[in-house]
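Weekly sync, protein design subgroup
Attendees: M.S., D.O., the rotation student, P.L. (late)

Item 1: inverse folding check
M.S. brought a backbone from last month's batch and wanted to see whether the design step gives back something sensible before we order anything. D.O. pointed out we never logged the input encoding, so this time it goes straight into the notes. C-alpha coordinates as presented (53 positions):
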Protein backbone atom coordinates (compact mmCIF):
# COMPACT_ATOMS: atom_id res chain seq x y z
CA UNK A 1 0.00 0.00 0.00
CA UNK A 2 1.43 3.34 -0.97
CA UNK A 3 1.48 6.39 1.26
CA UNK A 4 -0.97 8.08 -1.07
CA UNK A 5 -3.52 5.29 -0.64
CA UNK A 6 -3.00 5.19 3.13
CA UNK A 7 -3.52 8.95 3.39
CA UNK A 8 -6.73 8.82 1.36
CA UNK A 9 -8.15 5.90 3.35
CA UNK A 10 -7.21 7.47 6.68
CA UNK A 11 -8.82 10.76 5.70
CA UNK A 12 -11.95 8.94 4.51
CA UNK A 13 -12.08 7.14 7.86
CA UNK A 14 -11.89 10.43 9.73
CA UNK A 15 -14.63 11.93 7.54
CA UNK A 16 -16.83 8.89 8.16
CA UNK A 17 -16.28 9.05 11.91
CA UNK A 18 -17.06 12.75 12.03
CA UNK A 19 -20.24 12.44 9.98
CA UNK A 20 -21.39 9.37 11.89
CA UNK A 21 -20.64 10.97 15.25
CA UNK A 22 -22.40 14.21 14.41
CA UNK A 23 -25.36 12.29 13.04
CA UNK A 24 -25.56 10.26 16.25
CA UNK A 25 -25.36 13.41 18.36
CA UNK A 26 -28.35 14.85 16.51
CA UNK A 27 -30.52 12.22 18.24
CA UNK A 28 -30.94 9.83 15.34
CA UNK A 29 -30.80 6.06 15.85
CA UNK A 30 -27.36 4.43 15.98
CA UNK A 31 -28.01 2.37 12.86
CA UNK A 32 -28.79 5.49 10.85
CA UNK A 33 -25.67 7.21 12.14
CA UNK A 34 -23.57 4.19 11.22
CA UNK A 35 -25.05 4.11 7.74
CA UNK A 36 -24.42 7.84 7.29
CA UNK A 37 -20.80 7.41 8.37
CA UNK A 38 -20.20 4.47 6.06
CA UNK A 39 -21.79 6.20 3.09
CA UNK A 40 -19.86 9.41 3.64
CA UNK A 41 -16.55 7.55 4.02
CA UNK A 42 -17.17 5.57 0.86
CA UNK A 43 -18.25 8.53 -1.19
CA UNK A 44 -15.35 10.70 -0.02
CA UNK A 45 -12.68 8.35 -1.42
CA UNK A 46 -13.03 9.39 -5.10
CA UNK A 47 -13.24 13.05 -4.12
CA UNK A 48 -10.16 12.81 -1.92
CA UNK A 49 -8.33 10.95 -4.66
CA UNK A 50 -8.83 13.81 -7.08
CA UNK A 51 -8.11 16.51 -4.49
CA UNK A 52 -4.96 14.94 -3.04
CA UNK A 53 -3.85 13.26 -6.28
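Designed sequence read out in the meeting:
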Amino acid sequence: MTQHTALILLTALVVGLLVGGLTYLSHTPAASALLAGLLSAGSSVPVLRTLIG
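Discussion: DSSP finds two helices and no strands in the chain. Helices lie at 3-25, 30-52.
Action: P.L. to compare against the previous round before Friday.
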